[in-house]
Amino acid sequence: MTPSPRQNVQPMPLAMLSPGERARVVDVRGGRGFARRLTSLGVMPGTALEVVQNGLAGPLIVKLKESRLALGRGMSHRIMVAPGE
């Protein structure tokens, strides 16, 4: 039996995705306060999102359902995603 392509996808930081790429949140690496803050913004494991803007400077902007969310660079490096979902 051959493994499905999704099983071979390694989680990566949200900050590594390019504009237009879609992904699903797999894990949030941080303390309880950080996880609680993201949950209040709608970002938790299982959430599908799309990167709208990811330049060299400034915040990373993602689209969640019908809203957009600006995340700082530090936050985007601690949100692990599975791309292509």
Verbal overview:
There is one protein chain. The chain has 85 residues and is an alpha+beta fold. The protein has a domain at 30-85: SH3 type barrels, CATH 2.30.30.90. The chain contains 2 helices and 6 strands. It has a 6-stranded antiparallel β-sheet with strand order 1-6-2-3-4-5.
Describe the SSE topology.
Blueprint lengths: L11 E2 L8 E7 L3 H10 L6 E6 L6 E5 L2 E5 L1 H5 L1 E5 L2
Structural class: alpha+beta
Mean pLDDT: 89
CATH-defined fold name of the domain at 30-85? SH3 type barrels
Order of helices and strands: EEHEEEHE
- Total strands: the figure is 6
Query: What is the helix tally?
Result: 2
The top-level CATH class of the domain at 30-85 is: Mainly Beta
Global geometry: globular
User: How many strands, which pairing sense, and closed or not: the largest β-sheet?
Assistant: 6 strands, antiparallel
Q: By CATH's scheme, which homologous superfamily of the domain at 30-85 applies?
A: Ferrous iron transport protein A (FeoA)
- From the alpha-carbon coordinates, what is the Rg to the nearest angstrom? 13 Å
Classify the beta-strand content into a percent band. Answer: 35-45%
CATH 2nd-level architecture of the domain at 30-85:
Roll
Distance between the termini: 22 Å
Q: Strand sequence of the main sheet, in spatial order?
A: 1-6-2-3-4-5
Helix content: 10-25%
Runs in which pLDDT lies below 50 for 5 or more consecutive residues are none
